[in-house]
Amino acid sequence: MRFLHTADWQLGMTRHFLAGDAQPRYSAARRDAVAGLNALAKEVGAEFVVVAGDVFEHNQLAPQVIGQSLEAMRAIGIPVFLLPGNHDPLDASSVYTSALFTAECPDNVVVLDRAGVREVRPGLQIVAAPWRSKAPTSDLVCEVLEPLSQADVTRVLVAHGGVDVLDPDRDKPSVIRLTELDHAVNSGVIHYVALGDKHSLTQVGNSGRVWYSGSPEVTNFDDVEQDPGHVLVVDIDESDPRRPVTVEARRVGRWRFVTLHNHVDTSRDIADLDMNLDLMSDKERTVVRLALTGSLTVTDRATLDACLDRYARLFAWLGLWERHTDLAVIPADGEFSNLGIGGFAAAAVDELVATARAGRDGSAVDAQAALALLLRLTDRGAA
What family does the Swiss-Prot or TrEMBL record give for this protein (predicted)? Predict the structure, then answer.
């Protein structure tokens, strides 16, 4: 038996830094990753798909988002089992009970809205642990496992949330205890655990049967999400009483959110940064966050600004990570002596230079920006 394990689609997600057509393209990519499961399912012969929580970004979504999302799920063509998670719990405002969802939900889509066992077909069961609020007061997985005993059926547990060995807040009442999962797996009560909530592909424990699939399309920068963009192809050998499991990760994501840390002190450093940005592929689907440190002359800062302006037009988004950027701009001796200006204008430039050298307060920063702009306007800071 073969199926696809995915999670954290978070359809309807917006990223505040995406402007212009980048946000619609990103949203479309998330839907395309869902609809594209049809091709993967046909290729590998998958029987069904489980989505381990956070199908939607939240419960209050525009009708267009719901309608387009359901069409993407319809395109998958095989049964799709949706688990409500912390972003889209089964509370009073649940998207799953909305008039639009219930009216337009495709026949191949099933919401796992009841905790416990659901029969998929003879000999195959899904054990579901849906969220009914954003802050459960108990371990939902432990509750659904407690009444179960070993039986001559294949069982797939579909759950959402942090596992204690990976979650920094192990005292949360909703945290999933790995000892409970391992006991269920080792005793043959459960044969595979499909988890959602962690957006990076992650195996949990040593059994080889407990996995986070991660989000099929990136949702955060690579210092937070190390390995997003996958769907898991899960095989369970039902002919063997032990029901051995094989898991294969397939990359489906196309976007990247990249963080670059660079030290820039010279024009050579800026040229290296320029080359690195130029060599990056798929710029229109790449988001770049720059953490830059160093000390630059005003001329070099103007060159850097021109470089960043150019690539900001090419990437889906490119900008500075302000909290981790520390650039000192110090006018060099003679840097403004041959601009060909005199009188009041020359005196104003001298005053700006003095202010720029005085420190890093607001007036110094403004003076540095003014001088950089002056150089750019005179073509001295062209990239």
Answer: Belongs to the SbcD family.
| Spatial separation of the C-alpha atoms in residues 194 and 363, rounded to whole Å | 55
Tokens representing residue 376 in the block: 């750019």
Give 30's Cβ-side CA count (13 Å radius).
Answer: 24
Q: Which residue has the tokens 């450093």?
A: 269
Question: With a cut of 50, which residues of the chain have pLDDT below it?
Answer: 381-383
Q: Are 262 and 296 in contact (CB under 8 A)?
A: no
Q: Which of 49, 1, 8, 5 is nearest to 193 (CA)?
A: 5
pLDDT digits (tens, 9 = 90+) for 285-311: 999 999 999 988 888 888 999 999 999
Residue 81 near residue 51 (C-beta atoms within 8 A): yes
Cα–Cα distance for residue pair 292/270, rounded to 1 Å:
10
Question: What domains are defined for the chain?
Answer: 2-251 (3.60.21.10), 256-381 (no CATH)
Distance between CA atoms of residues 228 and 197, nearest Å = 12
* Nearby residues of 361 by Cβ (< 8 Å), 6 or more positions away: none
